[in-house]
Amino acid sequence: MPSLWIDADACPKVAREIILRAAERTATPTWFVANHQIPLPPSRWVKSLAVASGFDAADNEIVARLEAGDLLISSDLPLAMEAIDKGAAVMTTRGEMLDESNIKARVQMRDFMETLRASGEHTGGPKGYSDVDRREFANALDRWLAKNA
């Protein structure tokens, strides 16, 4: 059975709640990985893994434990690329699937925007997490679990 791996440092609370309910409902092993303890209700299926603080410590731990066929939930594009290289599926907390067909273009756009910001350009940040985002994520996660768990 595949596991769910959550890049919990940047996971919105509403997405965390959706993941918790889905993991319990489908009896899917789920790991929330962060550089601090994530408060979670007691569960047989859902665990929190706190790693040492440090640059990319949580990302490195996820990549080390991730197996082909698992699902990573993250919007961290470099982490997503590593997970895809290991054969894992990747979904953002907005329900978008990332794979070989779109990850390189997304990383290039991210790098381009970073260059613009470094030159003083104001590019704005990500939009807030909306009810539409919540619904899209919940539906995408349910579809993935129905097909893979």
Automatic annotation (TrEMBL):
PANTHER family (UniProt xref): UPF0178 PROTEIN YAII
Organism for this UniProt entry: Franzmannia pantelleriensis
Record-given protein name: UPF0178 protein SAMN05192555_12316
Pfam families found in the cross-reference section: DUF188 (PF02639)
NCBIfam families in UniProt: PRK00124.1
Family: Belongs to the UPF0178 family.
